[in-house]
UniProtKB/TrEMBL annotation, chain A:
Residues annotated as signal peptide: 1-19
Domain of life: Bacteria
SUPFAM superfamilies registered for this protein in UniProt: LuxS/MPP-like metallohydrolase
Assigned keywords, A-Z: Signal
UniProt keyword Signal present: yes
Protein name: Predicted Zn-dependent peptidase
Domain Peptidase M16 N-terminal: 51-164
From TrEMBL, chain B:
UniProt entry tagged with the keyword Protease: yes
Signal sequence interval, chain numbering: 1-20
Record-annotated Peptidase M16 C-terminal domain positions: 190-367
Keyword set, alphabetical order: Hydrolase, Metalloprotease, Protease, Signal, Zinc
Domain Peptidase M16 N-terminal: 36-149
Protein name from the UniProt record: Predicted Zn-dependent peptidase
Protein family per UniProt: Belongs to the peptidase M16 family.
The keyword Zinc is annotated on this UniProt entry: yes
């Protein structure tokens, strides 16, 4: 027997001597590697805090992660209190003032962050004892002051305000509220009103109730010893008072009996946010958990997913389309698939989304899709393991998700064993086109009539209407309140009369305006000069330095953006030219291409809507005739970007009314320009347009 | 009081625990001269296979610049056994990532894979070294790609030309005078023969180091390395004999106009020693002191307090034969470049004439230590460092010892090095200006 082995070995050697490897063939991967995960050493303090230690002496550094694994918390009419508590933690302690605390961490080259349900610190291992002390001190003896509370509360409210018109933020909030219900921790809505209800006492109470050790894990990874951790944890964390958080009951979310569209009308939307969602019960410990991830990856995971290939690459509806499946051990959760699409293709995009979700449930995925997806998924999984935070998360998941101890050790092998059938079964179980909510936030006047025509299984999908806060509402009424026979040119004419009359306007040869706005504490200066001879100059300066400048002189022009100069040509040149006249409306008077597109509310005023071009719409006050708002649409990186100018505070200069407050809104950003000077027929020279 | 005590005890601990960070490795040569470094780290089942070739922008003849960078592109085109255009697909459908980069001194190619694809990584790199397909059509394609890259990263990019401009003004005879990416006319003039000769000269095992790092079995890996790389023929010995520069002894002035900017930059630059010299390390420390972080000297004074500069920086561009030490500032509003030069020189002069404070010294030490630790936080990062220390510094063990060099630098030394290299008569004043003078 032994001899045979030697013979075989010799046989192989002689072969190897001739051709050691066959390099004409690409090497096949070896068997899926076993994950060499460190098993944490664990112990528990008397107050309930569980400590996990992963010794890793490769580098002299340590990370400390505190995670409190509480069930979801219902905040009710004080929604926002958890977020405020998180912001107020980590600002020093009752022993060390805030500035001193932060300065010390800087000096140590370390970092320390808090959230409402945990904290994270990292440093060199030699500073680990001090970092443990600082984290424990800040966690157990928080420095809650009225001053910081007011500051954080204002920040939170400012944040909520910037979301007021943000289509994707509204869409997200409505999706959650509809999926879970507004009286569920995941569905409740934080509003300015609920934040105003919060006092410092509420933050203190929230901290006392929920920042407690019963469900807390302290995970320490790095160049430390278990003994050192034991000693330090006992020294610094023993004083954390033992307590269990209060528990609630709340309703269980369920799927709708029949697929429906839940529509939120947002008149300012240039894109529709579409999400197809259904409720799933998926926990990490479920046997089909990995198959569900793979199915989702094939359907809508990134640039190789079917949704991306169909809705972006093939149809060009959107910049990106993807899907996501979530897991949660406490409550049912969501599967979502969606995209942000141009208004005009909203209904078509829904049809394609439903088609792709359906297809993966009725047809098995291809061998190649499965193979490449597994390889990518496995690679990503394995490469991510290098990050200590990933390792910590896995140790924590095993503990909190009740997973088998070898869950991650066998992860790649299990991934590799998944069959096409298992992927299809997971898709059938978790992706649901027949009991789905299709949440659409978009501009009803342009998309609603098409939304009402979408078929599913031979029936029209019903459309239900909701407000921005997920309350049921009536279908919007788009019937125009425009008097019969009124034309766009007449609207323009009454605007011209309102600001001073055609004759006065025609006397204007040059126009100069300077205005200023503030952005994050910095001043933005705006200067505009125009003449009737197709000359235009607009310069935006930040702290005295020009950041954006556009110049037009007759038929030539250029722009300079952050130091980069570009000559204007083609469409850009025409666009600027169209804006260059001191009063563009004088040209609209006789322009037969403009059209009156109904009436809409602008703020609390009703306004006539005049469509000047595909990219430009202007709103004129029905009552006073004044220009209220201008909406421009531009295409940037495949997304349609809308910018809005609002005109207010009209004042007279040389017998003509000019707006002295201009607000420009673009996405979540908004600049309020206050005009300091307007000059007519003075202060402009030829040099300005060179 | 309690806090003070604790802080000093934490500093005391420092001497005891610093040796914890030891990167283990094994190194040897194959018969064909390929240097091999293996680093085993089984924490994560990933493996990096990388090859660093000792060839960079400076390895060129007059009229044939930019070749090393062109090769960074050419050597992804395909090999005798890898179909043209398939390289990236092979890597991603096997769960990996890859990339390459070129400096004036070396070129680095690498892949990261789950460790069951070690063989694949070795195959890819050995294919590249043994028999890449280099033909006219590949050269034509990649020349255009490189031109696009030049437009994107240099010509169209605000301040994108400052490195080539500094090189041109700080060097008269050494190849560092020419841009790493090369002159486009040189690339256009390059023939297939030129390119093939360059490949045969530099992309040979005896001019390279292979690093295999991560979750590997050492015995098996050695065998595979021998199998895949052993048959690659040895190349001729390379001698580098680049002209030496004569020291700068009187201040130089230069201006450059960049059409992509609106705010000028005041730059002060000095020619400094190559990166293996101890003085180069000291210059790194001086950069950190001057401009790293909001409490650094230049930043605190010029940006924070006096609001003269939008941005300031000091950095040591370290290279094999010579370094370039650069201090720059971008003016706010009406501030003139003259004012910036004066303010910058005032701080540099302080470093030349007075000792930095004990507290600043300690803070710098902490920063370097953090930087050092984090530079070794990924297997790919370690592979890169191992390759660099062997190939360019001639001492692989620096991966564990370099921090000792920084630690041994004294406050006196900082002062001495500053007064050795950073004098006003040794400097280049480069006014980096917008194309046209601003209207005001």
């Amino acid at each position: 027997m032994k001899r045979i082995t030697i013979l075989i070995a010799a046989f192989f050697i002689s072969i190897a001597a001739q051709a050691q490897v066959d390099r004409t063939v690409m090497p096949k991967p070896g068997p899926a590697p076993e994950i060499n995960l460190k098993t944490p050493t664990s112990f528990k303090l008397n107050n309930g805090l569980k400590v996990m230690v992963v010794e890793n002496h490769k580098l002299p550094r340590v990370s400390i992660q505190l995670t409190i694994d509480n069930p979801p918390i219902l905040e009710g009419n004080k929604a926002g209190v958890s977020s405020l508590t998180g912001s107020l933690l980590g600002n020093g302690s009752t022993n060390i003032p805030k500035d001193e605390f932060n300065e010390e961490i800087d000096f140590l080259g370390a970092r320390l962050n808090f959230g409402s349900q945990g904290a994270y610190a990292s440093s060199l291992s030699k500073y680990f004892p001090r970092m443990m002390e600082l984290m424990a001190d800040a966690a157990i003896n928080p420095n809650f002051t009225q001053e910081e509370f007011e500051k954080e509360k204002n920040k939170l409210i400012t944040g909520l305000k910037t979301e007021e018109k943000d289509v994707s933020a509204i869409a997200n909030r409505v999706q959650l509220a509809l999926a879970y219900g507004k009286d569920h921790p995941y569905g409740e809505i934080t509003s300015e009103e609920t934040v105003q209800n919060i006092s410092l006492t509420d933050v203190e109470a929230f901290y006392r109730d929920y920042f407690v050790p019963a469900n807390a894990y302290l995970i320490i990874i790095g160049d430390i010893t278990i003994d050192q951790v034991k000693q330090l944890t006992e020294e610094y964390f023993t004083s954390w008072t033992k307590a269990v958080p209060p528990s609630f009951s709340y309703s269980q979310p369920i799927n709708v009996p029949n697929t429906q569209i839940n529509f939120v009308d947002l008149p300012n939307a240039v894109q529709s946010e579409i999400t197809v969602q259904n409720i799933v019960n998926l926990k990490m410990k479920d046997s089909d958990y990995l198959a569900a991830l793979v199915a989702n990856q094939i359907l809508g995971g990134g640039a190789e997913g079917r949704l991306f290939l169909n809705l972006r690459e093939d149809k060009g509806y959107t910049y990106s389309s993807s899907s996501a499946i979530r897991n949660n051990k406490f409550v049912p959760t969501r599967f979502t698939a969606g995209a942000s699409v141009r208004n005009m293709v909203t209904d078509s995009a829904i049809v394609e989304l439903l088609k792709e979700i359906k297809r993966i449930t009725v047809e098995p995925v291809s061998e190649k899709e499965l193979k490449n997806t597994k390889a990518k998924y496995a690679g990503r999984f394995v490469l991510a393991l290098e990050n200590p935070q990933t390792v910590a998360q896995y140790a924590l998941n095993i503990e909190t998700e009740d997973l088998p101890k070898d869950f991650y050790k066998t992860y790649l092998e299990r991934l590799d064993n998944i069959s096409r059938e298992e992927v299809q079964m997971a898709a059938q179980k978790f992706f649901n086109v027949d009991n789905a909510r299709i949440v659409v936030a978009g501009k009803g006047s342009e998309i609603l009539s098409n939304l009402e025509q979408i078929d599913l299984n031979g029936k029209k999908i019903p459309v239900l209407h909701y407000t921005k806060n997920a309350e049921r509402t009536e279908a919007p009424n788009y019937e125009s309140s425009v008097p019969e026979n009124l034309t766009a040119n007449e609207v323009i004419s009454s605007y011209i009369t309102a600001i001073g009359g055609k004759e006065k306007l025609e006397d204007v040869d040059t126009f100069l305006m300077t205005a200023a706005a503030e952005m994050q504490g910095m001043q933005l200066d705006l200067e505009i000069k125009k003449t009737v001879a197709n000359q235009f100059m607009q310069d935006v300066k930040m702290m005295g330095n020009s950041v954006s400048k556009q110049v037009l002189d007759g038929d030539t022009g250029y722009m300079v953006n952050q130091g980069q100069r570009m000559e204007l040509s083609g469409e850009e040149l025409l666009k600027i030219k169209a804006e260059s006249a001191p009063f563009v409306e004088l040209q609209y008077l006789t322009n037969s291409d403009i059209s009156l597109d109904g009436a809409e509310m602008v703020g609390d005023k009703s306004a006539f809507k005049v469509k000047v071009s595909d990219d430009k719409t202007i709103f004129y006050d029905v009552e006073t005739g004044l220009k209220l708002q201008e909406v421009n649409i531009a295409e940037m990186q495949g997304q349609q970007i809308q910018s809005t100018f609002t005109y207010e505070d009209y004042r007279e200069v040389n017998g003509i009314l000019f707006p002295f407050k201009l607000t420009q809104t673009m996405g979540p950003q908004s600049f309020e320009f206050i005009v300091s000077e307007i000059k007519v027929n003075e202060g402009v020279s030829e040099e300005d347009f060179k | 009081m309690k806090k003070l005590l604790l802080r000093s005890s934490a500093i005391l601990l420092c001497g005891i625990t610093t040796f914890a960070q030891e990167v283990n490795y094994e190194e040897y040569d194959l018969d064909n001269g390929l240097h091999v470094i293996l680093h085993q780290d089984r924490t994560t089942p990933i493996v990096t296979t990388s090859v660093m070739y000792h060839v960079g922008g400076k390895d060129r003849t007059e009229g044939r610049t930019g070749f090393a960078h062109l090769f960074e592109h050419l050597l992804f085109e395909g090999t005798k056994n890898i179909e043209k255009g398939k390289w990236f697909e092979i890597v991603s459908s096997n769960g990996g990532t890859n990339n390459a980069n070129t400096t004036q001194d070396r070129t680095y190619y690498y892949e990261v894979f789950p460790s069951n694809n070690l063989k694949l990584g070795l195959w890819l790199e050995s294919e590249r070294m043994l028999h890449p397909i280099i033909d006219q059509s590949g050269i034509d394609t990649q020349k255009e790609v490189v031109k696009e890259e030049k437009r994107l990263s240099y010509d169209n990019s605000p301040y994108g030309q400052f490195l080539p401009v500094l090189g041109k003004n700080l060097f008269d005879v050494h190849p560092y005078k020419d841009p790493n990416i090369g002159y486009m006319k040189d690339l256009d003039a390059a023939t297939l023969d030129d390119v093939l000769v360059y490949n045969q000269k530099y992309y040979v095992p005896n001019n390279a180091v292979l690093v295999v790092a991560g979750d590997i079995d050492l015995t098996e890996t050695k065998k595979l390395v021998k199998d895949y790389f052993g048959p690659i023929p040895k190349g001729n010995t390379i001698t580098r004999n680049y002209p030496k520069e004569t020291p700068i002894t009187t201040q130089k002035k230069a201006t450059f106009n960049d059409p992509n900017i609106q705010i000028p930059a005041a730059m002060v630059a000095y020619r400094t020693p190559g990166f293996t010299e101890r003085d180069a390390y000291v210059l790194d420390v001086i950069s950190t002191y001057l401009s790293d972080g909001p409490s650094s000297k230049l930043y605190k004074k010029m940006v924070d307090d006096q609001k003269q500069a939008l941005q300031v920086g000091a950095f040591n561009i370290s290279q094999e034969d010579y370094g370039m030490y650069v201090v720059f500032g971008l003016p706010v509003g009406e501030t003139t470049l003259e004012v910036l030069y004066t303010e910058m020189e005032e701080e540099i002069e302080k470093v030349r004439t007075t000792l930095i404070s004990e507290k600043d010294y300690q803070k710098i030490q902490n920063k370097f230590e953090n930087q050092f630790v984090n530079s070794n936080s990924s297997v790919e990062g370690i592979a890169n460092s191992l390759a660099r220390y062997y190939l360019l510094y001639g001492d692989t063990s620096l991966i564990n010892k370099e921090i000792e060099v920084y630690r041994s630098i004294t406050r006196e030394e900082i002062k001495n090095v500053a007064s050795k290299y950073l004098n006003t008569n040794q400097r280049l004043l480069l006014e980096y200006l917008p194309e046209e003078n601003p209207a005001n």
